[in-house]
């Protein structure tokens, strides 16, 4: 099942709703679907974290029931404008070091999980046009974002895995000039959090960690040319281990832990050089089969 945030048209009066996709690619208000099938405990809140926590509490049978109800629906919105699937108060913790593994001297990851924080304001809606400062330099990295459905605070790797409710994609955009200047102070908050720089989406694939195959590929293409390609198995830190480590920061439903090309181990057959320079006029695509394709355009 795939869910997203969208401003649905009448009769919802352009209200932001959590929507779910049926197999004919139409999107439906998820709360309405749950009510129609008599699902108990439906959250009163329309906010994404509440729905993620609810879906995380359901078993496989209940999720299949929801999917069958979606497919039985006749109506729906075929192509709503999807929004970044993240609550304003949520955060993304990006797992990577100062230099990508592919560019490091020994190509070995740090023993300790390290990285950067990204705020919701740094993210952009899927398919949007993003403005770049023509005097500055920027670069991109494909990342898989792991979505939390349960709170996690100093948990074990097993509990961290059970806290995961789904996955989405991010094109992690860095203001490189600012990053190089900030690094002298061991800080990167501004470079990683430029307003609306990093696209997120297009949806959240609702699945547990055990449903994510290690051979699942994530790719980055710029202007149709493949620039990054790696699998879940390539990550130097496993998803459960990274989530466990970041749980020291206290994770809540809707928070995300991201792993991208910078933390992927180089091997024959993958493409993990990172970061990749981008400029105004470029079109970017981050793709992963179970999730879909995240696109964005850059302009001056």
Tally of contiguous helical segments: 7
Specify Rg, calculated over alpha carbons: 19 Å
CATH top level assignment of the largest domain: Alpha Beta
In terms of DSSP E residues, the strand content is: 25-35%
Low-confidence sequence ranges:
none
Order of helices and strands: EEEHHHEEEEEEHEHHEEEHEEEE
CATH topology-level name of the largest domain: Fumarylacetoacetate hydrolase, domain 2
| CATH-defined architecture of the largest domain | Alpha-Beta Complex
Helix content: 10-25%
Task: Give me a quick take on this structure.
The protein is of the alpha+beta class and 300 residues long. It is built from 7 helices and 17 strands.
Please describe what this structure looks like:
This protein folds into two domains: 2-83, no CATH class; 91-299, Fumarylacetoacetase-like, C-terminal domain (Fumarylacetoacetate hydrolase, domain 2), CATH 3.90.850. 18% of the residues lie in helices and 33% in strands. It contains seven helices and 17 strands. It has helices at 30-36, 48-57, 60-72, 157-162, 176-182, 189-192, 239-246, and strands at residues 2-7, 16-21, 27-29, 82-83, 91-95, 115-119, 123-124, 129-131, 138-148, 164-175, 198-206, 217-222, 225-231, 256-260, 276-278, 283-288, 292-299. Strand 16 and strand 17 (292-299) form a beta hairpin. 45% of the residues are buried.
Q: Can you give keywords for this protein?
A:
twelve-stranded mixed β-sheet; alpha+beta; 2 domains; globular; 300 residues; 7 helices; five-stranded mixed β-sheet; 33% strand; single chain; Fumarylacetoacetate hydrolase, domain 2; 17 strands; 18% helix
């Amino acid at each position: 099942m795939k869910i997203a945030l969208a401003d649905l048209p009448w009769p919802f009066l352009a209200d932001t709703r959590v929507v779910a996709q049926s197999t004919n690619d139409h999107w439906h208000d998820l709360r309405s679907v749950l009510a129609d099938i008599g699902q108990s405990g439906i959250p009163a809140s329309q906010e994404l974290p509440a729905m993620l926590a609810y879906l995380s509490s359901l078993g496989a049978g209940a999720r299949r029931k929801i999917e069958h109800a979606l497919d039985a629906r006749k109506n729906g919105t075929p192509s709503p404008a999807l929004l970044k699937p993240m609550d304003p108060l949520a955060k993304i913790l990006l797992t990577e070091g100062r230099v990508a593994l592919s560019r490091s001297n020994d190509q070995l990851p740090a023993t300790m999980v390290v990285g950067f924080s990204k705020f919701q304001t740094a993210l952009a809606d899927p398919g949007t046009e993003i403005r770049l400062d023509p005097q500055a330099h920027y670069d991109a990295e494909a990342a898989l974002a792991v979505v939390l459905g349960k709170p996690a605070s100093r948990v074990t790797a097993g509990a961290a895995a059970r806290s995961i409710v789904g996955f989405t994609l991010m094109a992690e955009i860095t203001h490189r000039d600012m990053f190089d200047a900030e690094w002298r102070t061991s800080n990167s908050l501004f470079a990683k959090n430029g307003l609306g720089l990093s696209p997120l989406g297009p949806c959240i694939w609702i699945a547990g960690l055990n449903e994510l195959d290690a051979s699942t590929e994530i790719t980055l293409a710029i202007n149709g040319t493949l620039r990054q390609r790696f699998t879940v198995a390539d990550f130097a830190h496993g998803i459960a281990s990274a989530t466990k480590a970041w749980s020291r920061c206290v994770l809540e439903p809707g928070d995300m832990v991201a792993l991208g090309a910078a933390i992927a181990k180089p091997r024959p057959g993958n493409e993990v050089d990172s970061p990749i320079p981008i400029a105004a006029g470029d079109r970017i695509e981050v793709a992963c089969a179970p999730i879909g394709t995240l696109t964005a355009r850059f302009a001056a």
